[in-house]
Amino acid sequence: xxxxxxxxxxxxxxxxxxxxxxxxxxxxxxxxxxxxxxxxxxxxxxxxxxxxxxxxxxxxxxxxxxxxxxxxxxxxxxxxxxxxxxxxxxxxxxxxxxxxxxxxxxxxxxxxxxx
Length: 115
Description:
It is built from no helices and eleven strands. By secondary structure, the protein is mostly beta strands. The strands form two sheets. Strands 2, 4, 5, 6, 9, 10 and 11 form a seven-stranded mixed β-sheet that branches. A four-stranded antiparallel β-sheet has the order 1-3-8-7, with no helix packed on it. The model has no long low-confidence stretch (mean pLDDT 97).
């Protein structure tokens, strides 16, 4: 059973930065597709960024140029570097692993951005 544990959320002022981490258990991390999603109150969960096993990345238009997703297969960890944060980036951020036709979600980490 895969477990995903996010960390790194918190309170930051607008214009600031945070780095989220998602550590995965198990041995399938290196062949997985990893994604960061977020959900703000009253809104649907949305994809923020994704990274394939080969390192290809994609981003939501709203975060392009500000957020960077990366992975360290040796550490079974995916990261989301968030710069130039805006109040509208505030949400619970979740990581998702897709591997062998299955999906796994972390418990989420809260990001709060003060204006």
